[in-house]
Amino acid sequence: MMRGTFANVRIKNLMIPGSEGGIALFRQANSNESQQMSIYDAAMRYIEQATPTLLFAGKEYGTGSSRDWAAKGTQLLGVKAVIAESYERIHRSNLVGMGVLPLQFKENDSIQTLNITGDEFFDIKGIETIQPQQTVTLIIHRPGGGQSQVQLTCRIDTAIEVEYYYQGGILPYVLRQLLNN
């Protein structure tokens, strides 16, 4: 299943103009050069080099069938956070249930308005202690040393979702509850 995650031939990676299908950029740690490869292959290489990954998405991210498998595949590919313009309601919940942090652009911010090209590195500040719907900061480290910051909304919406996230998802949460009783 995870090899098929993001493999739809109609997917367009806006950071690789003209691309269709599950294509991603992979950049070796401490390197400025990147190469195109399948999302699966790039994800496995990022996992091998212990590089946490995040995914940028547009509006209504997660709309479509098999949303629970989509969240599972995202987590299995090593994605730690998704930053989207908006979420399909159930998919957002499924991401939290799989231990993936859903973050949302505020107002008119987007990949395009922030000129995110895929050549950047990112830090997320403010997730050390999460509260429902809190504001966090995305720090964008640009090639050549520049940096910018943007505020995001953490789309963990309830106190129980905070617990699920800190435990790594619903299943680890339930297992810990069973072991503690």
Question: Which key terms come to mind for this protein?
Answer:
alpha/beta; two-stranded antiparallel sheet; 8 strands; 181 residues
What does this structure look like?
The protein has 181 residues and is α/β, with parallel strands linked by helices. Helices cover 27% and strands 25% of the residues. It has five helices and eight strands. The protein has helices spanning 39-48, 67-76, 89-97, 159-167, 170-180, and strands at 23-27, 34-38, 53-57, 79-84, 101-105, 121-125, 135-141, 147-154. The strands form two sheets. A six-stranded mixed beta sheet has the order 3-4-5-8-7-6. A two-stranded antiparallel ribbon has the order 1-2. Strand 1 (23-27) and strand 2 (34-38) form a beta hairpin. The longest helix has 11 residues, at 170-180.
Put the structure in a nutshell.
The chain is an alpha/beta fold. The protein contains 5 helices and 8 strands, in the order E-E-H-E-H-E-H-E-E-E-E-H-H. The strands form 2 sheets. The chain has a 6-stranded mixed beta sheet.
